[in-house]
Amino acid sequence: MTTSALDEWAALEKRGLDELQGCTDEAALRAWHTRYFGDKGEVPAMLRKVSTLPPNERKAFGQTGNVVKTKLTEAYDLALANAKEAALQASLSAHPLDVTLPGRPVPRGRLHVATQVMRQIYGIFADMGFQVYRSREVEDDETNFGLLNMPPHHPARDMWDTFHTTTPGVLLRTHTSPGQIHVMREFCPHPIRAVLPGMCFRFEQVTTRSEMQFEQVEGLVVGPQVTMADLIGTITAFARRLFGQERQIRIRSSYFPFTEPSIEVDIDWPKDDPNADRLTKGTGWLEIMGAGMVHPVVLRNGGYDPQQVSGFAFGLGPQRITMLKHAIDDIRQFWANDLRFLQQF
Ligand code: FA5
User: Fold this and answer.
1) pTM confidence score
2) How many Å apart are CA 277 and CA 271, to the nearest integer?
3) Ligand 1 proximity of 180 Cβ (cutoff 6 Å)
4) From the CA of 226, how far away is ligand 1's center (Å)?
5) DSSP, res 344
């Protein structure tokens, strides 16, 4: 064995270790590793020299090479671990971590105020034996108007400014009343006691009291000998449960083509509220629902015989009710998605 071949290994080892000493950070260490152990690195290049040696020297050359390789690798691993630890310590002391700090709070969601009031309304009617019935928001003209005793060109249709779709005869329901037809046709000839909640849409001037999109809760009772006294009793019980005994209820006669007789129900607005005049148009009263005895034509369209059964219906506006409950002075707040408003409830 030529000593020069082994000397070369010794020299390589020394150079490698010396250079490793000079590497102060991880990047320098990785560059060192590429220089010595990469594809074109010094160690593989040295190992390739084995083929140029006489066969009897190759074994010792290879063994020495492996020892050097192991020493350099171990030294590199140690230096790399030290460099990483030093970098971690430096970063920790530069940006101290206070493990005693409380965690960041996770913001808690809540139900929209409209949903809260809707659930309250369902609860009150559920106590009186009403079931919830869901009806479609996109309706046909026939159900939204015709079957509710408003044939085409009936002037009463002007009471509801309507969003029509591009499909003739299909529209966004202007009120929840078409649901009366659906529920009657589904349950006829059985008695009905149901509330029908959901969105309604009207092509209306948006004001502090009126939105283009708002919720209604329809109520429908059908059965033998249902009277106006039942309607007034139900509405009064509902209003007292929701607003308390001290709130006043006013019932006015009104007109809807699908009820006869028809009424409207108002609630008094606190007089000390500076917005009272604007919201109640100076009357002190805010309308919350329309109602009446179901028109015989509507009962017949639902499949019932008006000689055998009678019924009452009402349609109330939960947004108006929520305004009353929480003294909200602008109905546009409901769908404006302003967290400052929503977080109050
Ligand atoms: C109706 O829509 C009738 N379908 C109600 C009805 C049902 C009468 C059953 C008889 C029998 P009216 O258009 O008045 O009626 O609306 C009923 C309630 O919905 C109003 O009292 C009000 O509380 C609410 N409402 C109406 N328009 C709006 C609007 N633009 N924005 C917010 N709430 C509204």
Assistant:
1) 0.71
2) 8
3) no
4) 23
5) T
